[in-house]
Design brief:
The protein is mainly alpha-helical and 627 residues long. The protein is built from 25 helices and four strands.
Length: 627
């Protein structure tokens, strides 16, 4: 979204001011989507530096500091940049043309781009859409910025804390379990776009995890919380990931990781298995030109090319010359995989076979990430990376490596999974916007490759700079830090746990995870075996349920998304014409406005005029600023 709006603001005037030979000329929606695709790729790799790498430095697994490891950080980031991009291309036909996943943020982006290019002589409806977009965008960005100065009043409503302070003491449990109302335009906007099934499953998973299972675990002594403060009895932290004994004294958040991961993995694999013919056809279509050439060379009927019609679900409106040829993504995938194995061998001393296996698992987990983003616009990449750590931690223990080497190896392979899943889902999102705007998928591949190249150097350099300015990011010596980086806690905890001599999964958590696996497999089988296609929306979306589990006791997102879906449901029923005229535009403005509001807030923080310094803590728990 940032790339689409900033790209328009910068490149549209330049396209008119510059002559053709210096980049001037026509700049329309297709050019705009290319710009935002490059921006998406440039932003994807930053997650490496807010999770795995700080955890590795905190555990003493790399050099003295990031500046001393700059070369290794660059080469590792280079490997992570391209594997996910190239194996995404064959998935386009499955997720976008066949399954037609929503990709809410991508729909909003495509709509934003289309609205940005409406001229002054456009039709009245187009002008109404543009004004709706601009108005919702302005309101969302203003709300996001001003709410930083009164977060407990304007942004998060800690309603149970208010009742607790009024004397209703037991209600504080709702605050402890994350049941807070948040006025987030982005997730309310996502709720306007996603199907009711996804939102209902998302909030249903939150209720199951953090209103039923979590309290039951604590009541029966299978999970444990820590008091937030002796001054406020009953206010408990259930999200601790820095655990001395994660197997016997897990926090509820740690306990939920494993059932959540099993839900995500099993759901995606079951959907893929149920659509195996679809996948086989997708790859057949992609490889058909190569097969035809081989047949021609062997005189085995080279002219008998397969023809796929609209009813096959694979009719592609994109002209052949704008599609990505098989040799391009196959060649890129082979080269990036070989490069990754070489870098991991000679710079991190990891067995090439293990690296190749990690790439295969990265592809599998990327399917999970793509499903999640396509359905509810949330990508649990950190949890997917943690799950990969578990797998390769066990493999490393079988190789009799030292605990420290095991921690490094499982951390690096987990980061490969994280980066690949993020790049894959981002690329599919871009391809969804591309599909909606009728642009070229091949051009998006080029844009992603160039955007990732910029990010390799820029994100690494920014990490080095921030590490020098704020050393607490990479150390455990300071109890307070300007940056919370919550994913680092998770990464560090799992790195230590999987290096232990025993399986780092609480027994009860493992049993529940296996039970969920059986439920998901049976549900998916019944869905495709006996439930008519038009009734599939009545079957729970297990990906959304799994996301609610792994998000931790933070239920603001599913509740806000459900709120948006209810508004959309009523709006479509009562005023359908108004919905189709304005609904997507308003949702797009809300999502973009909150995102850009976050950038403004970051600038205010750097300028020392942020809400953190000048805001009020009124309405916040324990009277501490909660922005």
């Amino acid at each position: 979204m940032f790339g689409s709006i900033f790209g328009f603001a910068i490149l549209k005037p330049l396209s008119k001011a510059l002559p053709d030979r210096f980049g001037g000329g026509y700049f329309g929606p297709k050019e705009n989507v290319c710009c935002q695709s490059a921006a998406t790729a440039a932003g994807s790799l930053g997650l490496l530096f807010t999770s795995g790498f700080p955890a590795a430095y905190q555990l003493g697994l790399l050099g003295a500091d990031p500046s001393a490891d700059f070369g290794r950080l660059i080469t590792f980031t280079l490997c992570c940049a391209y594997v996910g991009i190239f194996f995404t291309m064959p998935l386009r036909r499955l997720y976008i043309l066949k399954l037609k996943l929503t990709f809410p943020s991508s729909v909003a982006t495509a709509y934003t781009i289309r609205s940005l290019h409406v001229g002054r002589d456009a039709a009245a409806n187009a002008r109404k859409k543009t004004w709706a977009l601009v108005t919702s965008f302005a309101l969302a960005i203003s709300w996001r910025v001003t709410s930083e100065y009164a977060p407990g009043i304007m942004w998060d409503w800690h309603w149970s804390w208010w009742f607790y302070r009024a004397g209703w003491e037991w209600i504080i449990c709702a605050e402890s379990w994350g049941w807070v109302w948040e006025w987030t335009p982005a997730f309310i906007g996502c709720g306007l776009l996603v199907p009711m099934n996804s939102s209902a499953s998302f909030v249903g998973g939150a209720v199951l995890a953090w209103a039923i299972l979590g309290p039951a675990l604590v009541a029966t002594g299978r999970a444990f919380g820590e008091p937030m403060s002796p001054l406020y009895p009953g206010y408990i932290d259930y999200a601790d990931m820095d655990l001395a004994d994660p197997v016997h004294r897990p926090s509820p958040e740690y306990w939920m990781i494993w059932p959540g991961c099993m839900l995500l993995l099993t759901s995606s694999v079951a959907e893929i298995a149920a659509n195996y013919k679809t996948i086989a056809t997708a790859f057949a279509v992609l490889l058909e030109p190569a097969v035809a050439q081989v047949r021609a060379l062997t005189n085995a009927g080279g002219d008998k090319a397969a023809h796929y019609k609209k009813e096959d679900g694979f009719y592609d409106p994109v002209p052949l010359e704008e599609q990505t040829p098989w040799w391009m993504w196959c060649g890129g995938l082979v080269l990036s995989s070989v490069l990754t194995m070489l870098v991991m061998k000679y710079q991190f001393d990891q067995n090439p076979g293990i690296t190749l296996l990690s790439i295969i698992f990265a592809f599998i987990f990327s399917l999970v990430g793509a499903e999640c983003v396509g359905r509810v616009s949330v990508n649990p990449v950190t949890t997917l990376g943690n799950f990969s750590q578990l797998i390769f931690g066990g493999i490393s223990k079988g190789s009799a490596l030292s605990p420290q080497r095991n921690e490094l190896n499982n951390g690096l392979t987990g980061m490969i999974t994280l980066a690949a899943a993020e790049q894959c889902s981002d690329m599919l999102g871009d391809l969804k916007a591309t599909h909606l705007l009728g642009a070229s998928p091949r051009v998006q591949l080029y844009a992603q490759c160039f955007g990732a190249l910029v990010s390799i150097f820029l994100s690494t350099a920014m990490y080095v700079v921030f590490s020098k300015a704020y050393p607490c990011i990479n150390t455990l010596s300071s109890s307070t830090c300007e940056f919370a980086v919550p994913d680092v806690k998770s990464w560090r905890a799992v790195s230590i746990a999987v290096s232990d001599s025993s399986l780092p999964i609480p027994t009860s958590s493992g049993i529940v995870a296996l039970a969920f696996m059986g439920i998901v497999l049976a549900s998916t089988f019944a869905k495709y075996r006996w439930v008519p296609a038009e009734k599939h929306h009545w079957v729970p979306n297990w990906n959304a349920v799994g996301i609610a589990f792994v998000l931790g006791p933070t239920n603001t997102y599913p509740v806000a998304m459900m709120f948006g879906s209810v508004i959309a449901f009523v709006w479509k029923r009562r005023w359908p014409r108004a919905w189709f005229l304005l609904g997507y535009a308003i949702a797009a403005g809300m999502i973009a406005g909150e995102g850009l509001g976050g950038i403004v807030n970051a600038a205010l923080e750097i300028g020392k005029v942020s809400g953190n310094l000048y805001g009020t803590a009124v309405g916040c728990p324990m009277n501490e600023y909660c922005g």
